[in-house]
Amino acid sequence: xxxxxxxxxxxxxxxxxxxxxxxxxxxxxxxxxxxxxxxxxxxxxxxxxxxxxxxxxxxxxxxxxxxxxxxxxxxxxxxxxxxxxxxxxxxxxxxxxxxxxxxxxxxxxxxxxxxxxxxxxxxxxxxxxxxxxxxxxxxxxxxxxxxxxxxxxxxxxxxxxxxxxxxxxxxxxxxxxxxxxxxxxxxxxxxxxxxxxxxxxxxxxxxxxxxxxxxxxxxxxxxxxxxxxxxxxxxxxxxxxxxxxxxxxxxxxxxxxxxxxxxxxxxxxxxxx
Length: 273
Ligand code: ADP
Ligand code: MG
Description:
- This protein is α/β, with parallel strands linked by helices.
- It has one domain (11-271): P-loop containing nucleotide triphosphate hydrolases (Rossmann fold).
- Helices cover 39% and strands 13% of the residues.
- It has twelve helices and seven strands.
- Strands 3-4-2-5-1-6-7 form a seven-stranded mixed sheet, sandwiched between helices.
- The radius of gyration is 18 Å and the shape is globular.
- The structure holds adenosine-5'-diphosphate and magnesium ion.
- Magnesium ion (MG) binds at residues 24-25, 48, 52.
- Adenosine-5'-diphosphate is lined by residues 20-26, 52, 141, 197-198, 226, 228-229, 232-233, 236, 251.
């Protein structure tokens, strides 16, 4: 491989919410695709033993020869797990069910919370194959050791929140975990933002929930709201991001807007130091 410019570290964003079914995996896949479509080099790290991000990107089990389990248990370097997807500039480190045993395997090790951070350190090596600008970590629906690894490795956290009555329930627990990780493991960790998902504008309650979350969390909530869109939910069964499945649908448009907003926020964060 030909060496290019000196390697710089990617921005690492953990997509986390201990609730299941709020749109974490959908956001990892489609935000990753949207970022790649506008020129970023993206690695999605699947840290959910369910492997939905891997399946949704069309990566079958037999293609997952080296997985995030192998990486976090120290049996393989991250670069060995990285595989291309059908989307240019979008790569994946897939997961397998083994990952559900991580806690038993490494739960007593001193460095147990830093396995992902160590694995991502120097992921970019100055070659064209490893020059990621963004790493998106798809977390499991839990605040367990896997999620703590993601938070310890991340620059920031992106929280998908479903537009439903109990949206804010559980948020304080999530924020408490973020604070603990900041205190003990990763002092520079920040909340990148909250993205409201599965929004149905015809539903008065959904409108009220978005208003309430904006009032409560202020500017941390992205302008972009992801609509409930059947194309978004169909796409994974074809192993495709929605932007590949149907570029023109409202779901694809929303994820492109979110990607733009995230890059703008990154620039503002960088400018602010
Ligand atoms: P999580 O990873 O938080 O468990 P998922 O991203 O898997 O949540 O989403 C849960 C379910 O909701 C999936 O079946 C997904 O296809 C569907 N879904 C997610 N976002 C949308 C959306 N904006 N519109 C319609 N369906 C969605
Ligand atoms: Mg998921």
